[in-house]
Amino acid sequence: MAIDLKKFVLRFIDEANGHLQTVKEGAFSLSSGENVDAQIGEMFRAAHTLKGGARMLKLQSIADVTHQLEEILSELRDKKLEPDQNLGTLILQATDDISRQLDQLTASEGTNNLPPADAQLCERLARASRGEMGDEPVQAKVVPAEKPVVALDIAESGLKQAGSVRVKLEKLDDLINILGEVVASHDRLEQQVQSLSNIGPRLAHMDADQLRQEILQFSRQLKEDFQVQHLQMYELYDVATTIRMLPVSMLFEPVSQQVRELAASLNKQVDCRILGGEVEIDRQLIDRLSEPLTHLLRNAVDHGLCEAPERLAAGKSARGTITLTTQQDGRGILLRVEDDGRGLDYPAIRAKAVARGLVSADVVDQLSELECNELIFHPGFSTSKIVTELSGRGVGLDIVRKTIVTDLQGTLQVHSRPGQGTTFIIRLPISLAMMRILQFEQQNHLFGLAAQYVVEVVKCSREEIRDIADRPAIILHNEFIPVISAAEILRINDRHGSQTPTPVATSLLLIIIQNQFGKMAMLVDNLLDERNMMIKPLPKHMQHQALVSGMVLTADNQLVSVLQVPVLMEMAQKQGQPRAAAHKPEVRQNSWHVLIVDDSLNTREIEKNVLEAHGYQVTLAEDGFSGLQKARLTQFDAVLTDVEMPVMDGFSLTKALRAEENYQHIPIIIVTSRAKEEDRRRGIQVGADAYIAKGDFEQDSLIETLKMLLC
């Protein structure tokens, strides 16, 4: 059954305007001659997300313009282009063009009747990304005298568009009803205040008993009215929160369509099942979950699910199945991404861990499945036989864990059954705006912990804390739990300058915290409170603080830092007993000599600049035959080659190099615009170690791939 994309287009419009606002603000600063180094990364990410959403919804004209825009921002981010005012003005013209297309989509209520992209604009953007714009002035719609006005218009437009939301009528009715009750309750409290003020003139005519009765009656009535308003305020918050809630199908349906298209491109048959799509979650969660969910699904299609012949040989149906399940439990939202594929390849994971120096060969067989599951989230880790733009570079699952655990205050677990499949289990809070926070005090500093990470709070004597494996620990419920000092881990100094003052209390207070990898007991001074609290995000200049996820405000207007428990536990583990780790070989970058073979001068120079910026020695060749001759004259440590070249193509070059005795084990990376599955297969057959499509070329991916293959 075909999916009606119109409702997703309408949601995309709101999101796109938000991303476009980020690009516009940076472009205006750039066109004004301001320094935008700090904004380029955000602009690039916004353009990249905008392009991906447009492509998914088949909005090709928006995708074409945004792609060229992304190319310019990528070059600016990598310092290959010098920022100037003309470039900023050109980017503003591109954002204006995209805005007009979004307006047209809005007017058509999501119907895609967009004309083809402006070819002249795309060409100007493409030339600019190659540095060919020079000093040629761009006819700007924004003249210098109008800068303040334009800046205001952009800001106001962005707020209106990004802040819009579609609300069901019954939700608005509920909100209005509860607001009416709150107003009535406020009127009653106002009457109580008036009654209190009326007591004053009557005091001279009242005896003690009468006064006592008046005060008691006033106190009871005030308490009742206050309790009623307290309940109404929480009900008001709950109703207001539901306005931001959207069914999770809004997230699942587009990505499930992407899964089917991806599977078809890989010659695999895949069904994507959605269970619990009617469950509603906070829109903030939906927006933030899109990227990690896409990574998980791509991983499932590319790694987990095999092709029909292999499945039939294993006694399975020819069609693989990926199941997306959502349900609510007592502590939040539970998401499951499950495939019925081959499961995790633990022997391959162990072998790759040894090859990358993450684990020594003599202990690798002792790794548990849980420890092997943890390895797949290591940056750059992949067991893929060949590197493509979909998998094998290890740049996906680490992003998934960061987003789920660090950004969304959730947990991520992996369960795998060899030959049966793999399941990723994600637990998330119901809302990112309101969370249950446990507050504690350490040397007059206030801190908070998300209650979902807190197992229990216990008191113990000093004698109960003992040294176990050279670090303090307690035995609780027949379990060894390491003990950390909040003062030490948070580096809080007392007035005398020591980090961990000697407590005088006879008993110690421990907060037991837990994530999917274990438990820890944190020693604190005092426990203050636990309640639902509104989370305030950190200001921009503090958002690099990984240990603090946000702030809450106490009743007496004190700010409390909410700590990231996974980061806190990671810091404690590093600070505790060091584990014996295998020596990780360092890439001797300055001694690696790489041969680049490509008939495009521009491509050769780009790749050369990227590698030389990271300390590699580079030799260039313009075709396969020239590359083969140079390889026979000089021993290279790695080879990068295109496919389509005159005289000798890249496949022939790779096959010829593998026939040479001294190139049988040298890394060969194919970097090409040919992204079809049969081309990748041929790359494997002729002996390539990695296959990267030029359309998805990123310098970080290339460098990480090269490091991985050379280590």
Automatic annotation (TrEMBL):
GO terms for biological process: chemotaxis. The modification 4-aspartylphosphate is found at residue 642. The modification Phosphohistidine is found at residue 48. The keyword Zinc does not apply. It catalyses: ATP + protein L-histidine = ADP + protein N-phospho-L-histidine. Residues 1-105 form the HPt domain. The keyword Transferase applies. It is an enzyme of class 2 (transferase). GO terms for molecular function: phosphorelay sensor kinase activity. Involved in the transmission of sensory signals from the chemoreceptors to the flagellar motors. CheA is autophosphorylated; it can transfer its phosphate group to either CheB or CheY. This is Chemotaxis protein CheA. The lineage of its organism: Bacteria, Pseudomonadati, Pseudomonadota, Gammaproteobacteria, Enterobacterales.
